[in-house]
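Re: [help] complex structure
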Amino acid sequence: MTAILDILEQDSHATPDRIAALTGLPEDVVRQQIDEWEKSGVICRYKTVIDWERAGFEPVHAFIDVSVAPERGSGFDEVAARISRFPEVRSVFLISGGHDLRVIVRGADMKQVANFVSERLATLERVTGTQTHFLLKRYKEDGDVFFEVEADHRLMVTP
Amino acid sequence: MKPLNKVVVETPPSGIRRFFDVASRMQNVVSLGVGEPDFATPWRIRESAIYALERGYTTYTSNAGLLTLRKAIVQNIEDRYGVSYDPETECIVTVGVSEGLDIAVRALLNPGDEVIYHEPSYVSYDPTIRFAGGAAIAVQTTAADGFRVSAAALEAAVTPRTKALFLSSPCNPTGAVQQRGDLEAIVEVAVRNDLYLIVDEVYDRLTYQGVHTCMASIPGARSRTILLNGFSKAYAMTGWRLGYVCAPSEVTEQMLKIHQYTMLCAPHVAQYAAIEALQNGEADVRGMVTDYDRRRRFFVRGLEAMGLRCHAPDGAFYAFPSIASTGMTAEAFAEELLQEERVAVVPGTAFGAGGEGHVRCSYATSLAQLDEALRRIRSFLGRRNLLPGESDGRPAEVQP
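Output below.
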């Protein structure tokens, strides 16, 4: 059954019919299983991986490491949730190491991201410090490679 | 000038070559004609080879190959199939399975000795046996038997000159996988007639239905088996040219002489990479096998849906559908499919006369390409009124 998830993770367009062909499972079983997963939240949603730069846009991404004074009772959760609610925030992780949270922010330009950090993020109660790293070039993200993939060097027909 | 070697001169060039020449001059071809993985070698293995180059591992190795590699090879065989070999005396690292087969038959055969093999099968078996001075005796397998080799058919071909039985499983081009019971019966034939068993198991890891049984693991087989395998298929390492042979030391001792005088050793960097493959490549193999298996199901179903009967190919990465319903020869089907729809498949006859009525389609290509190939084959058949439900059941005339 995990094969179904595996196939959908690679291609959210894969139809139950196609998944049935690939796995050998009956189509109605595939359809029903996907239905269940959509309801139970195993499948959160279907999305598309876009190379925005190739599409002619150049959004600015920044990785912001945030130091937080944790709260009694809720630890980092409350602050992390507050940060997560900003639409420009793409990801929020609690991490080990020198800082506490790693936040990924997307903005139209550098100024917008800088303003967000200085006015919104750094000023939050319990945020004690931030360190901003602007993304310069994306090579691979979530398993997708963003540089020239290797060509097929095989001959046309071989024994 | 004096005539060249008679055996070689009389050997026709591979039937695959002609298709290659035609297909490679065309644009926009979807090729199902490629007999190798579409994956590049997993990065960890390539990275290991780069390291070997940086460290200057560019010399000869011992003739039999790096001992670390031989140890890893025999360990892998023991873990997988429960057969043990001595890495010092019973294992030789070869330049692909092709060299392994060559030195095996050269070590075994005296002029005129016969080797019985099965067809349809890989194009090199017959010439390699004949180049070694032997006589290659083909036994035909059929779609009705799922292209599995029967012990009875092999035994019927045994003569006083027979020296060895040759078997490849999983089989290129048919995808047939010999079952344990088949192999047990074949071993009995070998014992009864005192024959060697030469087995090409290079597709062993690419077995999707059932399990691969290693010939040497059958009781009574090990002492007469020459086991050939390699890294090309399981690890997507065709271009590295690396295989190995495991056999009793009386045989490997003679094989090693041929190997050391003709080949010296397999490429050092490739051997180094192969160690990484065996030690850390398992997850990569499993990932590729899962992928092939999905494409196999998808593609076979696609062929069946347009009326091209296809026995279930349990191993390797080929579908070998029957095109008998089209009334065309394998050669004509492949030729016209290539000309009209730009899909390259290989006529079954390239793998022996018994391949007539079939074409080999490699599904070691991307899902998108398989989709497109199926679409084009459908249109090819549709133009001839050969799609199920659209034909009158009789093979249509081939249109000009």
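The beta strands of chain A are 60-68, 89-94, 101-107, 127-134, 140-141, 144-145.
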